[in-house]
Specification:
- This protein has 2 domains: 48 residues, no CATH class; 64 residues, no CATH class.
- A two-stranded antiparallel ribbon has the order 1-2.
- Strand 1 and strand 2 form a beta hairpin.
- By secondary structure, the protein is mainly α.
Length: 133
């Protein structure tokens, strides 16, 4: 038991060290000259990836509801998702994309109930001539 605790502590310290190295490697947005143009998009990309976006699919995935989050649809909102967090319905094999881990976990409490509500709201929301709520 003590060896396991020690191993977990060492692993945690290793992750902390890696995180600090990654923060130091961020591009500096205050640079000027030709490299400043490439630094700004790179900085924006790093800021918006977050912890859950480390596994963004290399190819564009096509999910149900045109890649909108089902929990957002249940709430009556069109929330786009990149499919890095997804769930496949074992019955229909439909792929559903989520914008956050919280949304996915919440959805998994009662997937069929949420899918029925999302489907009803999807028909209403997509029927509105491009107007989003």
């Amino acid at each position: 038991m003590r060896a396991l605790t020690t191993a977990l502590l060492l692993f945690g310290f290793t992750l902390l060290g890696m995180s600090a190295d990654a923060q130091e490697a961020k591009p500096d947005a205050t640079r000027t000259g030709p490299s400043a143009q490439s630094a700004a998009p790179a900085k924006t990309l790093l800021e918006h990836q977050g912890i859950w976006k480390s596994a963004v699919p290399p190819v564009k995935m096509k999910g149900m509801f045109q890649n909108h989050d089902p929990i957002g649809l249940v709430a009556g909102k069109l929330i786009p998702a990149d499919c890095s967090l997804n769930w496949t319905d074992p019955d229909t094999h439909g792929l559903y994309c989520f914008s956050s881990a919280t949304s996915l976990v919440y959805f998994l409490d009662s997937p069929q109930t949420y899918l029925a509500q999302a489907q009803r709201n999807w028909q209403v929301l997509k029927g509105k001539s491009g107007k989003r709520r």
